[in-house]
């Protein structure tokens, strides 16, 4: 009993709460429907188990399901790995190259970012994935990518079973006229009758599962190719975005220098091995990383600090002129605002007339920014940021977009 209690820890039981989210519920539901229908169709109506091919086919279906679920739960429960609370660089002088996280009370290690959903700084954060209800990062990047590979492969196999099942069962039941196509579901199959007749309900269920399998193959397959593209360059989705912003900053201020991504090892195979290893444990400790010869450990973090300073310069101060409740798609803000709501899990912020917002980016009908807090706000709140409609605010005339550039940089005119 004592051994069992030492294995099943309270923290592990807490992790089970990750399943109580729309993402895992939908993902596991799709896996369950496609796998179950593929096995039922194979055994009852397409490829009987008493044949060698049918047995191999059934074992392969079970194998796909086990491998998909194994990597899915690995990605969910192993997690990305978090920067230790209160972490500091070994050399205290290096802290000037790092950002400080007030929530974690620690410096952000190279390649780490704070996730608002997880409320922790994540090592080598790629993104927060709603389908696993966890971040994809240093420790689970390989499992997550393998799941993205195996899910489409399993769905392709299942889709083949669904198509062949409907074909063999409807072969003698279809009749074509000049202007009509009739299906006689009562007609018997040429082969010996199955244990359970392939009726209308079975046909509808198989067709529905086929739609799920094909949709999953396309959607998840595209995500897999995106992930492999950045893995072979030893980047994350966030780092790709940082690199694009670096190029934009250099072009905007007409700088002579060029930003070189420090973690690209110069070989796709070497970059691949940074994530996928035979042991299943990724390279490094998630805090220190190998870099190119012409870069150093803080090349990327220095660029991030420059971009943060540039964002403060480019930000625009707005005053709230109408209240906003913080709803995702507000009906009272106009039809265009309602239908152009940002497709993101980033939060919306509640606004009250008279408050001030510092906007850092925006769309045609929406803005994203930080609320300028006053002393009346509780001490535990460090910042409030999110999306809000443009027609709720007006630009402060005295705080229009500044022409001042960060120190040492000249603005492109």
From TrEMBL:
<feature type="transmembrane region" description="Helical">
    <location>
        <begin position="195"/>
        <end position="226"/>
    </location>
</feature>
<comment type="similarity">
    <text>Belongs to the DHHC palmitoyltransferase family.</text>
</comment>
<dbReference type="InterPro" id="IPR001594">
    <property type="entry name" value="Palmitoyltrfase_DHHC"/>
</dbReference>
<keyword id="KW-0012">Acyltransferase</keyword>
<keyword id="KW-0728">SH3 domain</keyword>
<feature type="transmembrane region" description="Helical">
    <location>
        <begin position="146"/>
        <end position="167"/>
    </location>
</feature>
<dbReference type="GO" id="GO:0019706">
    <property type="term" value="F:protein-cysteine S-palmitoyltransferase activity"/>
</dbReference>
<dbReference type="GO" id="GO:0016020">
    <property type="term" value="C:membrane"/>
</dbReference>
<feature type="domain" description="SH3">
    <location>
        <begin position="313"/>
        <end position="398"/>
    </location>
</feature>
<dbReference type="GO" id="GO:0140439">
    <property type="term" value="F:protein-cysteine S-stearoyltransferase activity"/>
</dbReference>
<dbReference type="GO" id="GO:0005783">
    <property type="term" value="C:endoplasmic reticulum"/>
</dbReference>
<keyword id="KW-0812">Transmembrane</keyword>
<dbReference type="Pfam" id="PF07653">
    <property type="entry name" value="SH3_2"/>
</dbReference>
<protein>
    <recommendedName>
        <fullName>Palmitoyltransferase</fullName>
        <ecNumber>2.3.1.225</ecNumber>
    </recommendedName>
</protein>
<feature type="transmembrane region" description="Helical">
    <location>
        <begin position="59"/>
        <end position="83"/>
    </location>
</feature>
<keyword id="KW-1133">Transmembrane helix</keyword>
<dbReference type="InterPro" id="IPR039859">
    <property type="entry name" value="PFA4/ZDH16/20/ERF2-like"/>
</dbReference>
<dbReference type="InterPro" id="IPR001452">
    <property type="entry name" value="SH3_domain"/>
</dbReference>
<dbReference type="GO" id="GO:0035556">
    <property type="term" value="P:intracellular signal transduction"/>
</dbReference>
<feature type="transmembrane region" description="Helical">
    <location>
        <begin position="25"/>
        <end position="47"/>
    </location>
</feature>
<dbReference type="Pfam" id="PF01529">
    <property type="entry name" value="DHHC"/>
</dbReference>
<keyword id="KW-0808">Transferase</keyword>
<keyword id="KW-0472">Membrane</keyword>
């Amino acid at each position: 009993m004592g051994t069992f209690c030492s294995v099943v820890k309270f923290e592990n039981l807490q992790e089970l709460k990750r399943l109580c989210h729309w993402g895992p519920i939908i993902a596991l539901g799709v896996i369950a429907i496609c796998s179950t229908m593929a096995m039922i169709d194979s055994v009852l109506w397409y490829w009987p188990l008493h044949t060698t091919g049918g047995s191999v086919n059934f074992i392969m279906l079970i194998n796909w399901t086990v491998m998909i679920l194994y990597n899915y739960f690995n990605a969910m429960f192993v997690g990305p790995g978090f920067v230790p609370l209160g972490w500091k660089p070994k050399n205290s002088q290096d802290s000037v190259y790092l950002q400080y996280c007030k929530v974690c009370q620690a410096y952000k290690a190279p390649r780490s970012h704070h996730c608002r959903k997880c409320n922790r700084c994540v090592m080598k954060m790629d993104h927060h994935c709603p389908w696993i209800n966890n971040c994809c990062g240093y420790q689970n990047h390989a499992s997550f990518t393998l799941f993205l590979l195996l899910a489409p492969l399993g769905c392709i196999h299942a889709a083949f079973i669904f198509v062949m099942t409907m074909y063999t069962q409807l072969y003698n039941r279809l009749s074509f006229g000049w202007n009509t196509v009739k299906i006689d579901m009562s007609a018997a199959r040429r082969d010996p009758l199955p244990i359970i007749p392939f009726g209308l309900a079975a046909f509808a269920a198989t067709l529905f599962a086929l739609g799920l399998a094909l949709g999953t193959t396309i959607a998840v397959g595209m995500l897999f190719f995106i992930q492999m593209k950045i893995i072979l360059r030893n980047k994350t989705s966030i780092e790709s975005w940082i690199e694009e912003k670096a190029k934009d900053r250099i072009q905007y201020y007409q700088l002579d220098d060029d930003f070189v991504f420090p973690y690209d090892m110069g070989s796709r195979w070497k970059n691949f091995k940074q994530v996928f290893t035979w042991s299943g444990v990724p390279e490094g400790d998630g805090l220190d990383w190998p870099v190119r010869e012409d870069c150093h450990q803080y090349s990327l973090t220095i660029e991030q600090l420059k971009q943060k300073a540039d964002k403060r310069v480019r930000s625009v101060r707005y005053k709230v002129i109408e209240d906003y409740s913080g709803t995702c798609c507000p009906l009272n803000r106009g039809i265009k605002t309602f239908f152009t709501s940002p497709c993101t899990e980033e939060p919306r912020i509640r606004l009250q007339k008279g408050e001030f917002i510092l906007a850092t980016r925006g769309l045609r009908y929406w803005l994203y920014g930080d609320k300028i807090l006053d002393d009346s706000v509780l001490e535990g709140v460090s910042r409030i940021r999110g999306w809000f409609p443009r027609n709720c605010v007006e630009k402060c005339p005295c705080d229009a977009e500044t022409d001042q550039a960060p120190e040492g940089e000249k603005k492109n005119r």
